[in-house]
Amino acid sequence: MEVKGIITPIITPMNPDESINYVELKKQINRLINAGVHGLFFYGTNGECYILSAEEKRKILEVAVAEVNHRVPVYAGTGCIGTKDTIEMSKMAESIGVDALSIISPYFAAISQNELISHYTQIAAAVKLPIVLYNIPARTGVNIAPSTIEKLADIDNIVGAKDSSGNFDNMLQYIEATRKREDFSILSGNDSLILWCLFAGGRGGIAGCSNVYPENMVGIYENFIKGNIDKARECQDRIRALRNVFKYGNPNTIVKKAVKLLGYDVGECRTPFNTLSAEGMDALKKVLADYKKSDMR
């Protein structure tokens, strides 16, 4: 499979008792596919991967694979702190029938680049699915170095990397380090850098904001591919106001609240990651109201 386009790290809808709302999950799957997204990524950061049990993750994938029904690729976030646990989670996802794995780097304990290479090499040998590496140093405490990405790109079923560092030069070095493989995809995990990633030779983005405005986010990629650069830049620029609200709290909490304010029964994030100050909520409501006037979706 070719890893490209706008891939949505879909939120995990919750009931008031914090159980998973599978009815709404199916609705969100269809809403996003109908909006034209190029893939769905289950239990990433926006999907609250950090607070879901292993059994919940299994059930989410079972529901997701059945509901998506091959309409777009299904990505599963199977990264754990340990190599053994990551392999077990990855094999579970593979057995259910997902199309690809997204594997975050180990976190909490300090890790060297050589240990990262060993970790990912063992995982890749244990599964047949394509693997997208996931770099998010603000959450893990480690940056996967461009030289490490270059070495891991020698492994056939490691097919891409998502860079959520927010450091454009780091992402640019990923692109430069993997040009030897035409089928290796670099994706922006920072929504503000998707268009610039495409300009540099990347393949798209795993975009949290596409939970809120999927058509607009898809527009960045589709217009770029068609050569409509001014329109692509317009779509890219239009998410700035929403991203400015992120200063008020946890970004994926704000994304989920935004989807809820749009009228979808997605619930709140699990405690304690579910609050937003009155100032932040007012700012979010204003952004959504302004977007509604512009018919942004």
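The above is record 1. Record 2 follows with the same two-line structure.
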Amino acid sequence: MNKKVGLVLEGGGFRGLYTAGILHSFATNNIMFPYTIAVSMGASNATNYLAGQTQRNLDVPYTFVNDKRYISYTRMFAKGELFGMDFIFGEVPYKLIPFDFKAFAASKNKLLYVTTDCTTGKPYYIPNDTNEESFLALEASTSLPFASKMVKMHNRLLLDGGIANPIPIEKALADGCEKVVVVLTQPKAYRKTPFKAKWLAKLMYRKFPLMAGAILNRHQVYNHQLDLIEKLEAEGKAFVVRPTEALPIGRTEKNKEKLKDAFDIGFKEGQRMNEELLEFIK
């Protein structure tokens, strides 16, 4: 593969099961990228991808999505956490659906986790230098605003990277990627609308006004990035994988079969465009 080709993965909550299916297709066709930059659910998918465990991206949510240890609205209202991070990053990878830490550490490919610095409202990037750093960075990148506690790391308070840099295409280019493969979870016509509950962002993050500002400005950043991606696509510098229509799945989907359906849609799309992708990256 051309070493100047990078992989860019956005988040999207459980819509990311589509991305998981795409990566499963990549893995079955022995396609790996020397550089990956990923956000939120995309970062979770990328972590398993580097460990050679792309099926795990489906197995974990499919197994635990209706388990209160994994996701609980009661816990969110009581403790400010929708997802049980201790369970997800503790019991699950070490005991219940084991993560291959050895294989992940042995990977020669670079993975950059995108987080948002709550003090500055700017993106903060963390590479996969060690397993410990990577898993803490992953926790930060997947910690949703309004539904998660801030993660302390590198003397910073961090949350979901999708707030400040939802589709980190510019960072991939700045890091030397001459061509990019971008996996999106919304169809081509989609554009993000402004966050409606401005009062909530300002109230919840009153001590972090730049963070609140990033939340309110996110739609502009996201739509600008979509425009850039389409420009690069037209120039032959971006290979974009996206669903042809809105996925039949919500960000916090509870229907297990819909999770599997989204994964299968992604896998089939990955298989369909495999030869075209190989031509792009060779």
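The longest helix spans residues 209-234.
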